[in-house]
Design goal:
The structure holds 3 protein chains of 3 kinds. Chain A is an all-alpha fold. In chain A, 79% of the residues lie in helices and 1% in strands. Chain A folds into 2 domains: 48 residues; 218 residues, MetI-like fold (Orthogonal Bundle). By secondary structure, chain B is mainly alpha-helical. Chain B has a single domain, classed as MetI-like (MetI-like fold, Orthogonal Bundle). Chain B is 76% helix and 1% strand. A two-stranded antiparallel sheet of chain B has the order 1-2. In chain B, α4 crosses α6. Chain C is α/β, with parallel strands linked by helices. Chain C is built from 10 helices and 10 strands. A 6-stranded mixed beta sheet of chain C has the order 6-7-8-3-9-10, with helices on both faces. Chain C has a 4-stranded antiparallel beta sheet with strand order 2-1-4-5, with helices on one face. In chain C, β9 and β10 form a beta hairpin. Classes of the chains: A mainly alpha, B mainly alpha, C alpha/beta. The interface between A and C is small, with 4 and 6 residues.
Chain lengths: 285, 278, 251
């Protein structure tokens, strides 16, 4: 091996080391979160954490069920709002609007994605919460408020990925269908949706991941009461809010319990992301 | 009842238009609302004075500095790592198990919610490594949050440089590294910079990860070990503690304006990049 | 008549696919060697073997030797980057880099040679004159090379490798896609250049080889069928296959 080849190999090695930064950070994050959170799960037992109804850290009672229920309800609500609007927008922009319209509106939607979550939360507090209180009763800080805000926040994710999936369908599919006399909508319904299905599903799952992981906006509008919500207008606390609200003053086992919450959250999101990656990579038609 | 296809399409199209209009309306409403209420608060003194009385009075100067410094640290760490990774994946290796592992790592990292990063940053940087609540802890945490984005956008930018440029460079006797630095990177620069700007936008709005790592001290940061408050954190505290609604609106306005500027900049750069290669 | 390149028993493989089969060929100094043959005959692979550009392709493998001045270029201690500067290559589609004309010409020089601006300017003028491009672009050296016509771009590519003071010029179908006038200009440049360089010209256009080459080599399916003085190859080839190809019975 001569000097040229040696130098090249050195550079390659250096870049390889740099590349592992992303992987090693992931490994380090996982290790630290788990090492802080897992021991206490084993100490009190899985069941008491996942199914316990009472979260009283000062009395060593660490039941996360209300928060798990809270996260699930709020996420479901977000999907109920975000998916119909998101898919409609995406379909409209790709199949039923001019290219120029799409080129103006798509960046606008990407703008939505850039707005900080605290601003969304703030809008929720200032406008949505009083509105819910006046119209539907209850404190206003509720599952409904959180679902609406989260639904809006996941729109850009669902819209972008769905648009990309629809655009990736070979033009031949569209042309073939229209040549057989189908209308645009029939083509969309019967040809494009099935073809783009894996991408659309991936977008929804990713949206779900974002909703479950969202913290700041939810804290501001959800009420944060530790109780399984009885209705849409009841206040709710999610797993993320639980961590953020109490981390500032927690210590000892309380802090470890919050890390345990983080562990559970982490696992849920990793599972969701893996499913999303698998569904979208099976896209080879 | 079976609808005539043309009628069905007409109805569907109308429904879709309504849904899209509502979505766009919501976006415009949020921006207009914040700007209308917040712009009146923005004046020279608001932007150049430090917060007084926990934020009830004064301005937001120290938070602006905090945001800038934190973002700078994050970009200085993440950009070389991210672009280096992208270069490795595109120029120095073929698709194999190593590249799959690296991509898996980056993709997973991209999906981790900010609160988990906050926990991680707190336990590692603030506590175990002893940096305390500081610009350093916050910057490191933010750096790892934006790393996946920079890797992804840089990779795409590098991949779109024509293969013939690489061939020519080699045939003129360049080493691979010379080819990367003199041909590929200059050509991919707009795309790479776009990714970095997008990441800056994300850092500016980030709250959950920052509040647990950089803290919320109101004074100007004097070193990377100082604690510092960013605009987003300041806004959150003002709003949640009900300290000052008008200052909250003002801070929100700045945040929204920053996002607008960043998105416009990104869009402009992308157009320039696309035009160069079409 | 000295031998510039000696190819001995040279074979090339992409994985298990053999693309060049035991080539034996001598290339003489300061001559133009024309390489002809149908598509897929290994002409471009042969060229890529001379300056080891084939090495960049995955699973590329060779057997045999190629000697330049007695040294096998496939020896492990050979500096490949230097080799490629000695054998400049011009591709079928002109590829100007997205830079000014001036920067294009000096790109290779900047990598390994003089960097002084005045010296570079001399090199630019000299190389552009040798490719008959100087008069056409001397007033706009700082404008983008992408604005030149196809023929001008190709001459720019030739000038670009001349700036490295190579010993050999390798051309891979350089005039495909160019109009007859540009083609003629390039062929004229080659005739002038052969005084100072050894030139290997791969071409799909047998008539171009007839016009320009001193020796012509005929490749078919990775084998060197026949090589000899151009006149002889075109009027009285030894191998029937050469005759068939030149008369258009296949190809």
């Amino acid at each position: 091996m001569n000097k040229l080849e040696r130098d090249e190999r050195l550079i390659r090695l250096a870049l390889l080391a740099v590349s592992f930064s992303a992987v090693s950070v992931l490994a380090v994050v996982t290790v630290f979160i788990f090492s802080e959170g897992v021991p206490i799960i084993f100490k009190y037992g899985f069941r008491s954490f996942l199914a316990g109804m009472n979260w009283y850290p000062s009395e060593k009672s660490f039941g996360l069920l209300p928060m798990i229920a809270g996260s699930l309800m709020v996420t479901l609500g977000a999907l109920i709002i975000g998916v119909p609007f998101g898919l409609s927008c995406a379909v409209f922009l790709t199949e039923f609007s001019s290219k120029r319209l799409r080129r103006t509106i798509k960046p606008a939607i990407e703008l939505l994605a850039g707005i900080p979550s605290v601003v969304y939360g703030f809008m929720g507090v200032v406008l949505l919460v009083p509105f819910i209180r006046r119209t539907f009763g209850g404190p206003g800080f509720s599952v409904l408020a959180a679902s609406i805000i989260l639904g809006i926040m996941i729109l850009p994710t669902i819209i972008s990925i769905t648009i990309d999936s629809l655009l990736a369908v070979p033009p031949a599919y569209r042309e073939g269908s229209i040549a057989l006399g189908a209308t645009r909508w029939q083509t969309t319904k019967m040809v494009l949706f099935p073809a783009a299905r894996s991408g659309i599903v991936a977008s929804i799952i990713l949206g779900m991941g974002r909703a479950i992981g969202e913290t700041m906006a939810v804290i501001m509008v959800a009420g944060n009461a530790v109780a399984v919500p009885g209705s849409l207008i009841s206040p709710v606390r999610t797993l993320t809010s639980n961590i953020a609200l109490e981390m500032g003053y927690a210590s000892g086992e309380h802090r470890q319990a919050l890390f345990a919450t983080g562990v559970i959250l982490f696992v849920i999101i990793m599972v969701l992301n893996t499913i999303a990656n698998l569904t979208s990579s099976r896209k080879k038609v | 009842m079976r609808l005539d296809p043309k009628v069905e399409q007409g109805l569907v199209k109308a429904a879709l238009q309504v849904m899209t209009a509502v979505t766009v309306f919501v976006l415009i409403f949020i921006i207009v609302f914040i700007l209308r209420k917040g712009i009146s608060v923005l004046d020279f003194s608001f932007l150049t004075r430090n917060p007084v009385d926990m934020g009830r009075g004064g301005g937001i100067f120290s938070t602006i500095v905090g945001t800038l410094v934190l973002t700078l640290v994050a970009v200085l760490i993440a950009a070389p790592l991210g672009v280096g990774t992208a270069i490795f994946l595109t120029e120095y290796t073929w698709e194999n198990r190593i590249t799959r592992i690296i991509r898996f790592g980056a993709d997973c990292l991209a999906g981790i919610p900010s609160i988990i990063f906050g926990l991680f940053g707190f336990i590692l940087f603030v506590t175990k490594l002893g940096f305390g609540w500081s610009v350093l802890s916050g910057g490191l945490t933010l750096a790892f949050m934006i790393l996946p984005t920079i890797i992804r956008t840089s990779e795409e930018a590098i991949k779109s440089v024509p293969a013939t440029y690489r061939q020519v460079s080699f045939s003129l006797g360049s080493t691979r590294w010379q080819m990367v630095t003199r041909v590929v990177l200059p050509a991919a620069l707009p795309g790479i910079v776009t990714g970095i700007i997008l990441s800056i936008g994300r850092s500016i709005g980030e709250t959950a990860a920052v509040i647990f790592t950089a803290g919320s001290a109101l004074h100007l940061p004097t070193s990377i070990f100082s604690s510092s408050r960013t605009m987003a954190v300041h806004f959150y505290i003002l709003a949640r503690e009900g300290i000052s609604m008008s200052n909250a609106y003002g801070t929100a306005a700045i945040l929204v304006i920053s996002v607008l500027i960043i998105n416009l900049l990104t869009y402009y750069l992308m157009e320039k990049f696309i035009r160069k290669y079409s | 008549m000295t031998i510039a390149i000696r190819v001995k028993g040279f074979s090339h493989f992409f994985g298990s696919l053999q693309t060049l089969k035991t080539i034996d060929l001598d290339i003489l100094k300061n001559e133009i060697l024309g390489v002809i043959g149908p598509a897929g005959s290994g002409k471009s692979t042969f060229l890529g073997a001379l300056n080891r550009m084939n090495d960049l392709i995955r699973k590329s493998r060779t057997e045999g030797t190629i000697e330049i001045e007695g040294k096998n270029i496939y020896d492990p201690d050979v500096n490949v980057a230097e080799l490629r500067r000695r054998l400049g290559m011009v591709f079928a589609t002109p590829v100007p880099l997205p830079r000014s004309i001036f920067e294009n010409v000096v790109f290779g020089t900047r990598l390994s040679g003089p960097r002084h601006r005045a010296r570079l300017a001399e090199i630019v003028e000299d190389c552009l004159k040798r490719t008959s491009l100087w008069e056409e672009v001397k007033d706009r050296l700082d404008t983008s090379a992408l604005r030149l016509s196809g023929g001008q771009q190709q001459r720019l590519c030739i000038a670009r490798i001349l700036a490295l003071r190579p010993d050999f010029i390798l051309l891979d179908e350089p005039c495909s896609g160019l109009d007859p006038i540009s083609t003629a200009k390039i062929e004229d440049s080659l005739r002038l250049l052969k005084r100072d360089y050894t030139i290997i010209l791969v071409t799909n256009n047998t008539k171009q080889a007839a016009r320009v080459a001193d020796q012509t080599a005929f490749f078919l399916s990775g084998e060197l069928i026949e090589v000899g003085p151009t006149d002889k190859i075109f009027t009285a080839p030894d191998d029937q296959r050469t005759d068939d190809y030149l008369r258009g019975r296949f190809g």
